[in-house]
Amino acid sequence: MSVLVDAGTKVVVQGITGHQGTVHTRQMKLFGTAVVAGVTPGKAGSTVEGTPVFDSVRDAVERTGANASCIFVPAPYAQDALLESVDAGIRLAVIVTEHIPFHDMLVMYHYARSRGARIIGPNCPGIAAPGTAKVGITPNVVFRPGRVGVISRSGTLTYEIVNGIKEHGLGQSTCIGLGGDPVVGTSFVDALPLFEADPDTDLVVLVGEIGGTAEEDAADYIRQHFSKPVVAYIAGRSAPPGKRMGHAGAIISRGRGTAATKVAALEAAGATVARFPYEIPDLVAAALRDGARR
Amino acid sequence: MSVLVDAGTKVVVQGITGHQGTVHTRQMKLFGTAVVAGVTPGKAGSTVEGTPVFDSVRDAVERTGANASCIFVPAPYAQDALLESVDAGIRLAVIVTEHIPFHDMLVMYHYARSRGARIIGPNCPGIAAPGTAKVGITPNVVFRPGRVGVISRSGTLTYEIVNGIKEHGLGQSTCIGLGGDPVVGTSFVDALPLFEADPDTDLVVLVGEIGGTAEEDAADYIRQHFSKPVVAYIAGRSAPPGKRMGHAGAIISRGRGTAATKVAALEAAGATVARFPYEIPDLVAAALRDGARR
Amino acid sequence: MVKLAEWRGKDVFRTYGVPLPKGHVARSAEEAEQLVRAGTVPLPCVIKAQVLAGGRGKGGAVQFAGTPAEVRAAAAAILGLEFKGERVKELLLEEKLPIARELYLALTLDRAARMPMLIVSAQGGVEIESVPDEQIVRLPIDPFPGLTGYQKRRAAKVLGLSGGPAKALDRLLDALWAAFDGEDAELVEINPLAVVGDGLVALDAKVIIEDDAAFRHPQYAEIRDDRTPLEEIAREKEIAFVQLDGNIGVIANGAGLTMATLDVLAEYGGRPGVFLDLGGTDDPAKVTEAFLLMARAKPRAVFLNIFGGVTRCDTVAKGLVEAMRQVPASERFPLVARIRGNNEAEGIEILRAAGITSIPQLRESAQAAVAAAGGRP
Amino acid sequence: MVKLAEWRGKDVFRTYGVPLPKGHVARSAEEAEQLVRAGTVPLPCVIKAQVLAGGRGKGGAVQFAGTPAEVRAAAAAILGLEFKGERVKELLLEEKLPIARELYLALTLDRAARMPMLIVSAQGGVEIESVPDEQIVRLPIDPFPGLTGYQKRRAAKVLGLSGGPAKALDRLLDALWAAFDGEDAELVEINPLAVVGDGLVALDAKVIIEDDAAFRHPQYAEIRDDRTPLEEIAREKEIAFVQLDGNIGVIANGAGLTMATLDVLAEYGGRPGVFLDLGGTDDPAKVTEAFLLMARAKPRAVFLNIFGGVTRCDTVAKGLVEAMRQVPASERFPLVARIRGNNEAEGIEILRAAGITSIPQLRESAQAAVAAAGGRP
User: Fold this and answer.
1) Cβ of residue C215 closer than 8 Å to a chain A Cβ
2) Where is the domain boundary, D95, D110, D128?
3) Does B10-120 carry CATH code 3.40.50.720?
């Protein structure tokens, strides 16, 4: 089993005729994902990487049974693309697009929520369940089927860590890259219950960053509701306050969201916190040997 | 048992210091309802009919544990009052106020829904469960505890019919007046499942009107999901098209929502349809003798 | 509801940026001629009666003219018309445009979904009721976030528009949505919406504003195109009052009870001519006012059917007795009363003291009312 | 993010109807004096340095003046200041008002709730960080339906306002909400908000606009108050680039990996001075451009840490080799490279051909970078 995606996942790629849309359609297919449709208004009838293109998500869903969307459309049109997919019945949308105004994302989040749809992202790598399916842009080479769940606010750092887990001889059940924006559709607190319920996940690696309080909230959740071992890492320990560290969400302001508060909260919740990414594989292996956190 | 209200219902009256608010606070109390608080901004500290008045629903909920609201505030302020009550944690709001613009009601409906709150009304008599509680303005004298559920789009006509049931020697489990506006928080289709699940309701009287397709939708629901006997009546059989018959929702336009289509749909669904209000008590008594509709 | 005449609807459209033909209102044939002579309205032009009923084209209420003299003649002819019961007092003169296609667009309310609904059809220029259902597409619009880009693209596809006209539709739909939302409309309809060259033009405008939102839109309070004089007075007094084609006046409280009363009267051969809904009041003066208004409608008989809830029976009885005292003998009418519910005993006693009997059963009282009006039984 | 100077923030406020003191910007002492002589700014007045840092009052960057001569002197004094690293180039002159109380208001984002948040405190006029938490009230605002009446009443209660000032607050909050929403702001803050007679006046304005919404607000593109010159160039080239106080240049891809790299460097005594996030690119020219920009920052050493995903290792290697070719010998810097992930082998081979060794382990490569910059180990 896996989290959020399974053998029945059928992906529609919104913005499939763009460069990124095309490249990652190919990569998703190489990962073994059923990419059944693409959408670009005005391009109906063409194909991309052998996948039929439609004018609207509604057409794509009606004709192919697509049930998950991967969104690559440029930021000014991303809100419309998400609303369209939700309205067409899609209940899982991975938004890869970066630089979406957070005011737009507020609309998207609340609209999706009112319809029972889940957003991963924006500005995120998406979901990869080795051996099952991938919705997003994580590089195929870093994965290997296994029993470690990964939830991360980072992109490339996640690949680095996932690759480290693989090189250590372990593998992943599902990896979810949540994205580093201030407003994300799915946060750690939203994702943790999925892994708690997943019988094929034995442990979760949680990769956080400075900024916001998502990791503190995750710590609260872990303390109260999460039974599996957690290995965590927080990037940005040495980042100065007031400087935006690439991710719009990664900024320490007004003394909130520092690495120190996050590490302390996670440790208090019983998580093992790595000081550096390269420590993670050993800590994971050790925690797996020790078994359940409680 | 009863529907929507029970022994734990604690009512806050919004607009309690207005004339209607005061009169009906008294009537609700006489019915045996726990009216625990009133709200009128700027009037905190006073009392109405022995009930303490607060400046905000939030204060009222915090101080009295109110869990249902009865809204009498004038139409221009009704939207704000409803949002306030939902935001304060109220999950059942009866809106008595009439002449609320439907554009406002759209906002209210979707906001309440997103928070899991239920609206009855607007422009409605509200809920009365004889022997339990009343939230609204139905006259106390027409009720008597019993096993007949009543759902109605009308006001006074409901009292007439409920009174007829009483005079026939029967009584009501719960009576819900949904209101006659084009946009209502709870429609027949929303209310029927509550009565289906209520072990103390043996039969439902459904009082409809011309206009809209709420009765046709109810008929669909009854046919597919409702097991108890239904006695229905549709007011406005002789009303001419294009004339608004008092209720903003009661208008036949473009040939939709006529009494004939509603009666036909309900009869096809297995309901007994009365031609006149005064036929209802006999039909109810007969249906109760015959038992379950299927 | 306030139904706006075409020219008023187009004024609303103009405010929100819906593209319109060049045009102007005229209230006399002279004025019409002057408008085209001054070039305010280009020739050739269309002259349209400003009435609320549909079907103007077939009914001679829309004419075309190519010269000032023709304009004057057509205007004079139309101003003389009585169209489906409305006398034509105003004309709208508009340039005649080279129309490629006629489409249909409307925004109204989808009650079941509790959402506004966009209605789109490529079959414009005819009454929408006559268009087969499969050629009409209805799109619910969530008020949050409002009309979206993909819905506009869908509408363009349904209408068979691409390129320039599709872009024009995108802008036009934003304007139409803003008008619907901003004016608290029940209906905004463009039929036909014309494809003219690379753009779109609203040839007609049907706008209905919701009464209940009047507190936000005082500018519509003056418009009374769609009411009889008595209905207008009733509206000012905030009494729900409808005039139908019949001779029995009905005073009841509550819309449902009023309709049920009409149904019973009709069953026994009565023809309800006026109905007046007291609603929920506990002021006897309001009841008196309502009765006096009813008297002005000159019914053959009046049937009072009250079930006391918010409105108590004694309140109604008091108001009624006072009204009967004020109505001149020459205008009196037979009265059949039925009052039940809250304070029933007190109300019956007040009526009895004034010589009026309350018949408790709806059927029997309705039959008595029909008889009083001179019908059977 | 675009932080607006006070006067720019007040221009935004003015557009949306937030009440402000009478005032005007001056860029010289002469201009300042002229503004008060002409009556554009009434006397007595306040003269405020237009810098982005807080704490201007204590730092001498805000002064009061009662005569034109005093205005000139104060303006000259402030224009000479260097305030927390910013040179004062602009002044805002404003009338001095009779202030009854100073309050605090702000709208920003509540990330956890995914809603805007209204922040209210009766303790205005001091930095909000110094106000005890129990004196600050935070109200989440659902974007649908937006700021509501009951939230505004709550805010008035928290601020201890009633009567005229409460009515003024109601209007002001609507204006502030419209500004926050309409301008895609990250923050709109009024501190202090002054009670003046029966009304309210925004004495200060702090407005931060979101970069990502620039496509809707081209007017903010010109504002560069808060960036170093190199950061400005990077912004134009759409390269994420931050200058810190240190000497190792870091080029990585992805925000998280960049931060992790800083953390590792810091652990081994390195001081990262510039970091540059390549993000996701597959254009070698973009990589070259980034390297040339890095060269202009004159780092002691550069650490390249790439994990290939969207950005492939060979792309980076090609761009890097080209950049090293273009950098003049005098500006060369020691380079430590670590490239992993997609097309790793190809990338390593390209680097090897150019004489650059990739160290596969993060720890070892970071240690090498620190050593190259002349630190330990």
Assistant:
1) no
2) D95
3) yes
